[in-house]
Specification:
Two copies of one chain form a homodimer.
Chain A: E1 3-6, E2 13-16, E3 55-57, E4 71-75, E5 89-92, E6 95-99, E7 103-108, H1 122-140, E8 147-154, E9 166-172, H2 177-193, H3 197-208, E10 212-215, E11 219-222, E12 233-237, H4 251-268, E13 274-279, H5 290-297, E14 301-306, H6 313-318, E15 321-323, H7 327-336
Helix pairs in contact in A: 1-4, 2-5
Chain lengths: 342, 342
């Protein structure tokens, strides 16, 4: 059973995945999967190779765990956290731990092994986003989950172990440290100025203009002023919105902004490996009181990070980053890439 | 000139290195150097290929920038921060920035292209550590430097661009976020208990025993309870000490603990790539008042992180880590490796 262990100095939680229990020989370099569609557990006809599906969009009315689906969600076969565990917290000597209770799901974005996010039609991509929203909504009903993280790893350098297009979701029993920092930063800004910091950033970026990558009626993407990585991009709803999963009204605009942004990135950098992460509010309950205030000060967004540079000792030691490409230059390259806007 | 830019939400500083100004084509995968000693700027006879040396140990009395040295410190040819810049802070729209004032040095550990840290004699390794201490002491005299980070990148996955054994040093005009978190965690623990948290951790680890990697009279290394990475190791002086650079009395024990620990790691994991980082106190001045209190609550140490797993979207998004090897298992493998203790 995985364990959550807390670093006593900085309070960082670590998932120690005892089930995997890797030995020294397991760390020898191994090639990435791609055996291709024939052996891929996410392709049509191989539905039995994944744990039974949680849900799927099946326009043809086909039975669960058979072909015919458009988007399919399954439990991760090698979960980082286990949903069957009971959440218990205890001390171990001077340290703190809890059982690794949580959920780890995989959203298979398309039956097509070779079509990435940027290749999907706006309808298909809207379906993927809607599926992510639905899964968050469903998991939010379990109040033991404090946070639902949705993210995408593309390519082996970005941590992907399968190449078939997929998004991942992890539900955790604690609000992660980095999320807390963001919530606290936004709250503190709001207290001083009674304005959402992300709304202010959007305003500033639209005034400045140089860092913008793409904009439509409801969404904007830009290279942030303090980009950690070359070609880092943030994508936000222009209207103030707390939760990604409640953003239903302009799903097609969301899909378009994401697709165009990813297309530009793919063309400018020759299909780079990347991670993107949906930053959304934690799982809140009116009884916690906090729910009232966070409505105004937090603003969901997606952070896209191409994996072009290596994170080395300096970054690990300090928590700050060396970015060799100014965001103004990165945005310029991306602006110069023209893509057909569906 | 590099710029330091501050993320307005979480307060993270980023070094935007405009001088490097990398374009999309610069990110195409490139092989690591190793052209071997013939073209290596850190080998004997190639002293003119680096900027002029800052200092060197030259037992043979040879002239600066000629062969004969044992350990040699030079400015980084491609510095992340520049020592010639004047430190100025200003606002840019709603954002904050400052000029990238700082220092970036390279400590060439040995003239031998092929002898890593673990292959040096105790005398040679003591010299390397003494050189690091001397450089910190020297840079501490400039009160514009708030923090001096000493770290080592081994292998291309760990961010090394040259294979000749070397350590790096970066002096920054701000105390980095991750260092602050550690200082604050230690301070808060001390306030509650009037004990150093690191001293308590050492006591706990010696009681428990299972996570210890190596121990001599004055130093101990172990796999920490909440290890972020498989085979992560911390190395600490057993006696309470604030500053790495002031730790002179038992340098041979320090070198022995580091050498044996790195040898065990090299044998167990077949020469893994890794980063290690010296965590020491910031550059403090009695007039700041803080100096009195930190003496008791902070404790310098080295964090060693083999690069065996990929950091993916989940880790970036949450700031917590999935570690597939429990530290108890990692320590057991390392305990089973026997090395000759000089």
């Amino acid at each position: 059973m995985p364990e959550l262990r807390k670093d006593p100095v900085v309070g960082r939680w670590v998932i120690v995945s005892t089930a995997r229990g890797k030995r020294p020989s397991d760390f020898l370099p191994s090639p990435v999967d791609d055996a291709g569609p024939q052996k891929c557990p996410f392709c049509y006809g191989h539905e039995h190779m994944t744990p039974p599906e949680i849900t799927a969009y099946r326009p043809d009315g086909s039975r669960p765990n058979t072909p015919g689906w458009k988007v399919r969600t399954v439990p991760n076969k090698y979960p980082a956290l286990g949903i069957d565990d009971i959440l218990t917290k205890r001390g171990v000597g001077i340290y703190d731990m809890m059982t690794g209770f949580g959920a780890h799901e995989v959203i298979i974005e398309t039956p097509d092994h070779y079509r990435g996010i940027k290749d999907l039609t706006l309808e298909e991509l809207s379906d993927v986003l809607r599926m992510c929203q639905g899964r968050i909504q469903d998991l939010h009903r379990d109040i033991r989950f404090r946070y639902i993280l949705v993210f995408r790893n593309e390519g082996p350098l970005a941590g992907a172990s399968l190449s078939h297009p997929h998004t991942q979701l992890v539900a955790t029993p604690i609000t992660p440290k980095r999320v807390k920092e963001e919530l606290m930063g936004a709250e503190s800004y709001f207290k001083q100025r009674e304005r959402c910091i992300f709304c202010d950033i959007i305003h500033e970026e639209r005034e400045e203009g140089r860092r913008i990558v793409f904009e439509n009626d409801h969404f904007i993407s830009f290279c942030p002023f303090a980009s950690r990585f070359p070609f880092e991009i943030w994508l936000l709803p222009k209207r103030h919105e707390l939760d990604f999963h409640a953003s239903h009204d302009n799903l097609r605009d969301m899909a378009q902004a994401l697709k165009v942004t990813m297309q530009k990135l793919a063309i400018a950098l020759n299909n780079p490996q990347y991670n993107y992460i949906i930053h959304s509010a934690p799982n809140l309950f009116p009884r916690r009181g906090y729910w009232q205030t966070i409505q105004d000060d937090y603003h969901w967004h997606i952070e896209i990070m191409p994996r072009l540079t290596k994170v080395a000792g300096f970054e690990w030691g300090t928590g700050f980053y060396i970015n060799p490409t100014p965001p103004e230059d990165a945005a310029k390259y991306l602006q110069e890439v023209t893509v057909a806007i569906a």
